[in-house]
Amino acid sequence: MNPSSTQQQHHHNSKAAETAAEDIYGAVHRKEYEMKRLNAQHASLSDPIRMAMGYAQEGIEQKRLAAALRRVYDDPYNPANPDAKEKSLEQLEREEKMLENGLADATMRRGSFIVDIKRRSLSYPREQFARYDDASLVAEAMVRLGADVVFVNVDYHSYGGDIGELKSAVKAVRGVNNEAAVVMKDIVVDEIQLGLAKEAGADGIVLIVSVLGPALENFLNLATMIGLEVIVECHTYNEVKAALDALATNIMVSNRDRITGELILDQAVRLAGMFPGSGGPIITLAGGGVTNTDQMKKLLAVGYDGVVVGKTVMGSPKAPEFIRAVRDRTLLPAEFSQWGLDDVEFDADGNVMSGPKKGIPSATDDDVFL
Question: pTM for the complete prediction?
């Protein structure tokens, strides 16, 4: 066989390997092997990634991710908002009365919208549902449209991204919005991946309970030490309990079972009652298989603080519709989620809307995106 044909065969085999179906077990084993090589490449203590892992956060940590998920900058009276206004005497008297009645935290909520940027997914093997030159272009566009947080997938084999795109996405988002957060999403199996996220400038990282198991707490502790916020992904009751026991403060319930690959659309709804009410220390997110705005509204109505949407808005004109469906309304306190008020909608000022939100394009409108 001549050299050129050998190269062609190697290229063909590489492409076949990249598109081969892979379950979570295969992905974890592959990732462990990749991280073993990466650790060897970055063994020096003076390596930037090792340095990112070795320095404890000094001073007061800026929690950009938590602030974005809570949308504190959209609340003019939130003390975490640097431009917070003083409350009127009437507002203070109302809060005092609510405190007397045990309803101090029963205030209207603002939902956050999180975009999961990826070209493909473990959940849809061999299907490429988005084609873009660089994730930074998508991240910037989504933030301009109003997304509060963007996930940037960096696993090439399963999701079609890489660490270079994370770095460019951080730079692009910072260029247009200093309040939106950028999160590294990967199949995290090794502590060096926390260093990669920190060195790239990401605000946070996604950790998957079904992948890390009992090691979750150690990863959370290291992330806290180096000033990296964490979103813990769960699917089952036991996984949520493990995240709560490990004192995770940002928890995402996915409808997708990572082990079996099965999509259970009401899983997040069923587990919503495991979390404390509004205003507590835990920020809750839900996602997985979200294909329409009604699903998003239901997840927010049962108490989740934000919704994660991926494939549906990748390369789709639906993105503005989805983002506005979350951001242009306020939500009842999580404590009211069992009162049967799921169909009652409130505008951005907290007023009851008489019907469906006006001005939000529908996917069935012929000219909506012309």
Answer: 0.82
